[in-house]
Amino acid sequence: MLWPLVVLLAVVVTTLAVGWVADQVLQRVAGRHPEAPVWALLRRCRIPLQLVVCSSLLIAARPIERLFELDGDDTHHVILLVLLASIGWLTVRIVAALLEAFFTRYEAVADDPARVQRVRTQLGMTRRVVSALIAVVTVAVMLLTFQAMRTIGASLLASAGIIGIVAGIAAQSALGNFFAGVQIAFGDTVRLGDTVIVEGQQGTVEEITLSYLVIRLWDYRRLIVPTSYFISKPFENWTRKDPGLLGAVLLHLDHSTQVDRLRTALGEFLPTTPLWDTLEWSLQVTDTTPSTIVVRATMTARTPDDVAALRFEVREHLLAYLRDEHPTAFPRVRTGEPD
Description:
Elements: H1 2-32, H2 38-41, H3 46-61, H4 63-68, H5 72-109, H6 113-144, H7 147-151, H8 153-158, H9 160-170, H10 172-187, E1 195-198, E2 201-208, E3 212-217, E4 222-226, H11 229-232, E5 236-237, E6 245-253, H12 259-269, E7 276-288, E8 293-301, H13 304-325
Antiparallel strand pairs: 1-2, 1-5, 2-3, 3-4, 6-8, 7-8
C-alpha cells in the first residue's frame, strides 16, 4: 500500500511542478519579448496542461487502482476520458491564445479602424467555429472509447444518410443561423462596434456569435437578433465604410425669421464645440406652409454618437439664440387682420 501512495504523491508533485515550470518559462519569455503577446496569453493554458500531465501519469502508473483496490478497467476508462477532455480543452486554449495574439499584433500596426473591426469580427467567429469543431471531435473520440459505441458503429454509419436528412430538417433554423454567422464574419456586412438600424431601433453591435447578434441600444437595452436576419432582410449600417455622418435639425419658424442671421449664429457656434468635425455645415429653408417656414440645419461629425450629441447642442443653441435675439421668429397664430 505504501508504494502506490508514493507513486500518487509523485504524480501530484510532478503535475504541480510541470505547471509551475511552464508558467515561469512563459512569464520570462513574455518579459523578454513584450512585442509578442502570444507568450503571455499561453499562460492561460496552465490548468488544462496540468490535467493532461496528471491524467497521463495516472494512466501510465495506475496508482489509484492499487491504492483503493478499484476495478482497473473502469478506473482506466474514467481517467482516459479526463485525458481526452483535457487535451480538447488545452487545444481550445492554445487556438484562442494564438488568434488573440495575432489580433493584438495586427491592431498595433493597423491604421484603419474599420479594417481592425473587420479582422476582430472574423477572428472571433473563427475562434468560435474552431472551438465548436474541437468540442465535437473531442466528444466523438470520448464516445468511441465505449465498447457499445464501437459495436453499433457500423449500423450508425449505415443509417447516417437518413439521420442526416432528419437532423437537417429538424435543425434547419439553427444551421441557417450558423452559416449566416460565418457569412457575416467573412462578408463584412456588419462588424463589432458598427452602428446599425434594425426594426427601427438604433444600436451598436456588441457581440456576434454563430447564431445571434447582440445590439446595445441607446438606452442600454440589448436587442437579440438572429444572424439569419442580416442575410435575409435589409438593414442600415451607418459605420460600414466611414463612421462620419451628417446630422440635421429641423425648426418650424415664423415667416418673419431673419434666416441670414440664424445662419451666421450657427456658423459662429459650430467651431466652439468639439463634436463638429469641421467638414461641412449649412442652414437652409427647405419648405414653407401657410403659417411657418421649415429651416434645416445640417452638420457633420465623426461618429453616430457625436452626431446625436451635436444635433442636441445645435437645437438648444438656435432656440436660445431666437429666444434672446429674435423672439418674433417663433410660430404665432394670427387672429386679426394684418396692419
